[in-house]
Structures are given as structure tokens and as C-alpha cells.
Amino acid sequence: MIIFAYHEISRARDPIIPVSIFGTPTAIANFIGVTVHGLILWCVLYYLPFYFEAVKGYTPILAGTALLPLTFTLCPSAITIGLLITRWGCYRWAVVLGSLLACLGSGLLCIINAHTSVAGWVCLMLVPGLGLGSLFPALIYAIQASAEPRQLAMAVAMCSFFRSLGQAIGIAIGGVIFQNSMHSNLMKYPAHASHADDYSKNVILLVEALRKMPESATTDDLKTAYSDSLRIVWAVCCALAGISALLSLLTKDYTLTAGESVQEDVGDTIKTATQVK
């Protein structure tokens, strides 16, 4: 990927991806935002079910059902924000608000532990759902508005690419963080230290082991280690969402009226783009 980017920037006479679509602070900030959005979204959707299965003892079906507080708020918030952006003709507020809610929501997930009640985790999962859902339309509007008309299709395609890239990176990074944290936490308990390598490298193995174990102090220690390890994953998501929220402040709020030309200063040059609705 790095070699491809170098070739597109420095060598290609007719690049597949025109570098100019990344030519403004608005575009750069929101492409980064799209990547972080995909990363956090799939970290949460991938690793929360493991919490419900391993720590709460839910079946896979119940674990999927337990995600409803998060997934149920994604679509309504995305639709609502999209309608408000269309009605008001501006999107910067939605990018900033969604980024802040995603940061806050990721931070709230850190509160979840082995003893969190059903009402507790339901309420805590609503905020990240609202934030991540809001960013779906907000980011695409911002990226479209910052692109020149002839590059609009490419900008939208790159938006999908960077979100997918973030999703892949999120699962990979989340796995590394969880494994290292789980190994460190298990080593704190002498009864589990001998199985630290196996349990930390195979999440499914640990889930199955917990289901077969009778309730005892030993299983409580495993559940605590599991939830504490996931807390590190949520903390990293919160930090990345915070960086994205800061970058969202660079977003320029263009009008979305079709055919209207706007300009943005980029160093000593001026970026001109015709905005589309």
C-alpha cells in the first residue's frame, strides 16, 4: 500500500487516485475521520459479543441480541443527521458532534466490567451508537463538499475504501491489544498463569473453557481479566476518537447548494470546488 501511494504521488503520469482529492484540510481531516470511524465501529461490533459470551455467559444468539442498544441507535441517528444536514444545508456541526459522541461513547465503554448490570451496559452502549451512526452521513457530506465536481465519484469511492481499511485495521489492532492485555492480566493470577498463552491467543477457547467451569473464585478471576483487557481496547478507541474529534475542527462548512463554487485556503494556494448536494 505504501509502495502504491508512493507510485501514485511521485511516478504515475495519470494516477488512478488523483492526489488533489486530499488537497484541503477539510478532505484530509475527514478521510482520517472515516478511517477512525470504521476502526472504532468494527472494534466495538467485533469484541463486545465476546464480552457477553465470556463474562456474562450469554449464548451467541443472546450476545447478538445484547448489541441491540448499539445497533438500534446507529440507523435512526444516521437518518436523522442526514435529514438535518439536508434541511439546514451545513454539515460541520454533525461531524464535530458525531466525533465527540464517538469519543465519549468509547470512553463510557471503559466503565463496563464483570459486574455491570443489564441496565448499566444498555445505557452505556447508547452513546457510541448515536455517535457512530451520526458520522455515517456527516463524513460523506464533508468529503463530497470538499471535492471538485470531476473528482466527486473518486472521493466517494475513497471514502468507502478508507472506512473498509479502518475496519480491517480495527479488528487487527484490537486483537493485538486484547491478547497482550489478557496475557498480562492472567499472569497476575497464579491459578491461570500456566494457561496465559493459550487463553490470550484463542478467545474462543477461553469462552468455551468458562462455560464448562462451575462458578467459583477462579472463574470470577478469568472474567475480571477478560473485562479488564477489553477496557484497554475501548481506551485506545477513545483516544483515536479524540484525535479524530480534534481534526474535525479543521472541517470547513461549505454550503451544499448545487453548482455553488467555494474556496478554501491551502498554504499559499486556494482550493476551488463546486459543491454538490
From TrEMBL:
Gene3D superfamilies: MFS general substrate transporter like domains. SUPFAM superfamilies: MFS general substrate transporter. This is Unnamed protein product. Keywords: Membrane, Transmembrane, Transmembrane helix. GO terms for cellular component: plasma membrane. Pfam families: MFS_1 (PF07690). The keyword Transmembrane helix applies. It is found in: Membrane.
